[in-house]
Amino acid sequence: MSKYDALWKYVQDNGSQSFKLSFDQISEIAGIAIDHSFLKYKKELTYYGYEVGKISMKEQTVQFNKVQKSSTVIEP
């Protein structure tokens, strides 16, 4: 269980192709303040069908993008 599970679930339930959340919104959703460890934990989000895009320190926002599934078919 990750300390960001509540955030990952929120992102997955959002369903949008792409959207931003402020650091304050993330803290409210996750129940904890965003910190440097977010960079390590963000890899978990791919299990929920999303990835972290741009993290803006100036705007204090994080961009979330839906992962595009590959449609490559490998034939025998």
Describe, in plain words, how this protein is organized in 3D.
With 76 residues, the protein is an alpha+beta fold. It has one domain. It contains 3 helices and 3 strands. Strands 1-3-2 form a 3-stranded antiparallel beta sheet. A hairpin with a 4-residue loop joins strand 2 and strand 3. It is globular and about 30 Å long. The termini are far apart.
Chart the SSEs and their pairings:
Elements: H1 5-14, E1 18-22, H2 23-30, H3 38-41, E2 50-56, E3 61-66
Antiparallel strand pairs: 1-3, 2-3
> Tell me about the biggest sheet?
3 strands, antiparallel
Strand content: 15-25%
C-alpha termini separation: 39 Å
**Strand pairing plus helix content: what structural class?**
alpha+beta
**Count of spatially separate domains:** 1
Summarize the structure.
By secondary structure, this protein is an alpha+beta fold.
Give descriptors for this structure.
76 residues; alpha+beta; 3 helices
